[in-house]
Amino acid sequence: MRHERRRRETSSGISFNAVPMVDVIFMLTIFFMLVSRFSSAEQIPMELPKPEHSQASVAKIPERVIINCRVNSLLPSGSMQAVYSVGPNQPESLDVVARRLAAMRKQSPNLKVVVRADRRLPYAEVREVMRMLANNNIDMLNVVAHVNEEK
Hints:
This protein has 151 residues and is an alpha/beta fold. The chain has helices at residues 19-41, 94-107, 123-135, and strands at 64-71, 82-86, 112-117, 140-144. The protein is elongated, with a radius of gyration of 30 Å.
């Protein structure tokens, strides 16, 4: 007769406690249920009034504006005339960009401007944008440059 010894497995004291994970999943489920409820309440279809002589204005003016300075692609390749645009808008003259920024500055005194320039442009063209910003009393200016990471 063969006797087999049963080994008692001893606990090392380390075990997986799933209770905190269940708590986190429960809290995330509640959070997403509430957020979906609030966002769906904002998207109720309705017809909004359209008054004839409304004095309402758009309340949200961006605090940061990007000015793109690029080479005019409509001119021959040897010409380096610059065209400017506010964000993704169509290219405009620097005077039109200045008027737009002046209007934005009135509604948002803390306006910050980021200047992006094509590296083929002469620095004088970019300097004109900086001068225009100074004339509009915009003192928060960032210039975008490509950093060479091969050092």
